[in-house]
Amino acid sequence: MNRWIVAITVMLPTLIVIVDTTVVNVSLNHIRGSLSAGIDESTWAITSYLASNAIIIPMTGWLSRLFGRKRYLIFSILLFTFGSLMCGSSWNIQSLVFFRILQGIGGGALQPISMAILLETFPPHQHGMAMAIFGIGTMFGPIIGPLLGGWITDNWSWHWIFYINVPIGIASILMALFFIVDPPYMERMKMKIDYWGLLFLVMGFGCLQIVLDKGQREDWFSSSFITWLSYISISSLILFIIVQCFTENPIINLRTFKNRSFSSGNMIAFFTFFCMFSSIVLLPIYLQTLMGYTSFLAGLVLGPGGIATMITMAIAGKLITKTNPKAILAFGIAVTSYSVHLMAQFNLLADFNTIIWPRLVMGVGMGFLFIPLTTLTLSGIRKEEMGNATAIFNLLRNLGASFGVAIVTTILVRRAQFHQVHLVEHLNPFDRNFQLAVPQISQILQDKGFISFPPNQGSLSVIYSQLIKQASMLSFNDVFYLLSIMILLILPLVLLMKKGKADVPGAGMH
Q1: What is the secondary structure of 359-388 as a DSSP string?
Q2: What is the Cα–Cα distance from 283 to 342, expressed in whole angstroms?
Q3: How far apart are CA 291 and CA 277, in angstroms?
Q4: Angle subtended by helix axes 457-488 and 432-447, to nearest 10
Q5: 1-191 and 253-405+474-510 share one CATH topology?
Q6: Bond before 325 cis per omega within 30 degrees
Q7: 453: which of 9, 228, 250, 471 lies 20 to 30 Å off by Cα?
Q8: Which sign does the torsion angle of CA 310, 312, 315, 318 carry?
Q9: Any residues with CB less than 8 A from the CB of 356 and at least 6 apart, and which?
Q10: Residues 36, 42, 43, CA angle at the centre, nearest 5°?
Q11: What Å distances lie between residue 494 and 121, 323, 361, 469, 478, CA to CA?
């Protein structure tokens, strides 16, 4: 079987699943208005998808063994396609949330299954190229999602952000039927179902994803809803780990973590996506709230970085066969850290070129980071355990992104409040700069035809609005600087990884 046809077969549905993670965000107001839903109700259309994804991803390897991987792959694409069709046909917000859950259950399995099939289809010395193919989808999906969602919603309607998945899903099912073949160790096998493990996993990861997604909006532990969900999540995950250590057929084989490279690689993946995904989320917020960019212009800033990542991944896929992957990984981490440090230098006068340059640098860094990281993490895993290993890797990568967004948005708000308090201290009649600014701004307003009563009220309003913007800008600087330091602190973990055999042509999987 031509390995490139297999690659296209597994990456096509995976790409639309990743796009669907972010495509709804920009259409939320249209959906809310169309279905007569409140703001909190409408956000469940995003949260429900993420939560069901988080539940299914760690179960993928186990479900593939239980039902047979090809059979489970086709079922997942079918469920995702059906969920997409019904999401577009939703008649109220409750039906949309239900069908988004179905979408998430179907789509969650596709990332780890695609990664496992690619690593098995390509020989070990081509694993770098296989992960370049996978990486292009995972990196480009979150970038194209908001742009595609905005364009479809503006030119057609929000229903079509879901309907567009249907023909792609049908094509993917047909391709999977013809081109995917299960190896003997991935065919259906009889197993005793671990019901307790299943229950604790669903409760643990489902509640955790809701806490991360809703925490900042609900002011974290001041909300009894978030507090109780946190208790349920922590206790369920502890019980899940205990059950997995003693059951005969665990849903997640935690013994895989005995592999040092695998453990180190998963830690690097968690913290890398914590920092990288957070910065990609913060950048459009900075552009739209402080710089006045439209959604489309903010997307234009993100887009070139995605293109840079794709080009760099192809280069990294070739380099990994010729040099030590650990050196490429360390270089990628350093470049990514530098790009976020450049973002920490942004200000309210930054032009388009100043803003787009750090994003391009990050694209280069992520391209050199993702390929060697994935290859070093998974090259030492036996083929029989690859489904379990890729499920864990994708789970921790996604959790890193979720933790990152939840934590940095909270820090952003807290630091903005901190800077606002300190800047306000200078807004008093005894401050020399304040004394000079008030009459100057007042004169400018009068020259432009604005008359304020009482005198200077307009200038005070202008000064305070600028103060709030400056406080917000300083909080963005703080968060970007913190993220750049966090990425650098990952570097020592690279030393714990083994070079592996993926970089040696003809080497076998051990």
Answers
A1: HHHHHHHHHHHHHHHHHHHHTTS-GGGHHH
A2: 12
A3: 21
A4: 120
A5: yes
A6: no
A7: 471
A8: negative
A9: 301, 304
A10: 170
A11: 27, 15, 21, 39, 26
Kindly report the pTM of this predicted structure: 0.76
Over its length of 510 residues, how does the chain's per-residue pLDDT go in tens digits?
A: 577 788 888 888 888 887 776 677 667 667 777 887 766 666 677 777 877 887 888 888 778 878 888 888 899 999 999 999 998 888 888 888 889 888 888 888 888 888 788 777 777 777 667 777 777 766 666 667 766 777 777 778 888 888 888 888 899 899 888 888 777 766 666 667 778 888 888 888 888 878 887 777 777 888 888 889 999 989 998 998 888 888 777 778 888 888 888 888 899 989 988 888 788 778 877 887 888 877 667 767 777 777 788 788 878 878 887 888 888 999 999 999 999 999 999 888 888 888 889 989 988 998 888 888 888 888 777 777 777 788 888 888 878 887 887 888 888 888 888 888 877 776 666 566 665 666 666 655 555 555 554 555 555 666 667 778 888 899 999 999 999 999 999 888 888 887 654 433 333 333
Residue 507 one-letter amino acid: A
The answer as to CATH 3.40.50.2300 being correct for domain 1-191 is no
CATH architecture of the domain formed by 253-405+474-510: Up-down Bundle (1.20)
Greatest alpha-carbon pair distance for the chain in Å reads 83
Residue 352 CB neighbours (<10 A):
13
